[in-house]
Amino acid sequence: MTAAPDRISRSRQRWRALDSAAGGLALDLGLYAVSAVFAAVTAATSTLPPHRGWGTIAAVGYLVAALAVTGQLLLRRRRPDAAPAGLAARAAVTAVAWATTTLLPLAVLSIQRAAGRTDRAQEEVVVVEQAGARLAEHGTPYLGHDAIAALPPTEQLLGYTPYQPGMALFGLPRAAVDAWWTDSRVWFALATALVLALAVGTLRAGTAAAPGRPDAAVLRGVQAATVLQVCALTLATGGDDLPVLALCLLALALAAADRPGRAGLAVGVAGALKLFAWPVAVVLICWAGTRRAGARAALGAVGLPVAALVPALLVDRDALVENVLRFPLGHGLVTSPAQSPFPGHLIATQLPAGRAIAAALLVAVGVAIAVRLLRRPPRTAAAAALICGYGLLAAILLMPSTRFGYLLYPLALLVWAPALALAGARAARRPVPTG
């Protein structure tokens, strides 16, 4: 009966020991060093031109960050009493690393694209900008089945917009002005930075009186959502997942602060952008239910995505269904190119009836999580983050069509959990608010 909790406790202890080694600098050095190697390998071997462009610049940025951390380690050995200043220095290195490994490559790629390079952005950038143009002109970001079928075969994939209607808002600047700063990635980055700042402010307010080193836990969570190579690469070359992730993290931070209504609004905005936020919304509604606030959280978590669908539904219902349902389920005119070699994809392509087997495994995971939520709903934001993280990780690994970049969701959610636990411990001592 106690074996599983004991294993979990030992795993947490090992993580805390690793995370706090040399005041957190040991893991910082590992993060930047491994990321530098990853970026260099990407620059040399990737078959995707935007990825190579990112890797060429980001490898230098990660290397500089690794050297800065090495200097901090040497200083720590000479001045062990400088630990508080060391945390501020770690945060400064994180900020510089994000600027040099994400924002700088993003700006360079956007400027090169505006100058005429057609290989400086992932397909999703073009898709979002086209969706923004259609939204401005026709009131819906979606093309119907017949309109997509009329496109040349090589352009039909880009005719699909497999996102929720809110994502098209990031394409509106390019619909108005053709310039490098209207590249949708620039607006993804701005939204991500703003939302993460709100999430960090919420967490720091909640952990102000927490024991231990709460700011270190918050910093680690920020690193997982910014300088982690899968996040940096995704934002610089495509970017649409990062605002969704940031909004989910904000929703969990608000949950840790006992703000179920605001948490529902935050995850609802995320759900109006992309389906990946919907599982997080379900878990947060279950969390809010343990505080008798399920309806309040659901009002924003469900109401906002539904409200975002209404205009597109009224303008062209068939186009909405074609893009939001048929294409993601593999019933569009073309299939998704997302084919990372995870177990679900390998099962679907290598075994007889593999797609059915992969689908059955995916359903089994969903049922197991649903049973867990019904029998033992999460009572803390940290528990909700862990359920979301492990659940999304299992789903990503088992989906027949998936991308390596989707791993940014579970990785960031899992690393975010310790800071949520510290904030939640303080919030538990306060009366439940109404917001």
Q: What does this 3D model show about the protein?
A:
This protein has 435 residues and is mainly α. It has two domains: 22-120; 121-427, no CATH class. Helices cover 73% and strands 0% of the residues. The protein is built from 20 helices and no strands. α9 (184-206) runs parallel beside α12, α10 (214-225) packs antiparallel against α20 (408-427) and α17 runs antiparallel to α18 (354-375). It is globular.
The average pLDDT value, as a whole number, equals 89
**SS elements, strand count:** 0
Unreliable sequence segments: none
State the end-to-end distance: 38 Å
Count of helical regions: 20
Q: Roughly what percent helix?
A: over 70%
Which class do the helix and strand fractions yield?
A: mainly alpha
Keywords:
single chain; 435 residues; mainly alpha; 2 domains; 73% helix; 0% strand; globular
Offer a quick outline of the entry:
It contains 20 helices and no strands. The protein is mainly α.
Task: Please give the structural blueprint.
Elements: H1 3-20, H2 25-45, H3 49-78, H4 83-114, H5 123-138, H6 145-149, H7 156-159, H8 172-176, H9 184-206, H10 214-225, H11 229-237, H12 241-256, H13 260-271, H14 277-289, H15 294-315, H16 317-326, H17 343-350, H18 354-375, H19 381-398, H20 408-427
Helix pairs in contact: 2-3, 3-4, 4-10, 4-11, 9-10, 9-12, 9-20, 10-20, 12-13, 12-14, 12-19, 12-20, 13-14, 13-15, 14-15, 14-19, 15-16, 17-18, 18-19, 19-20
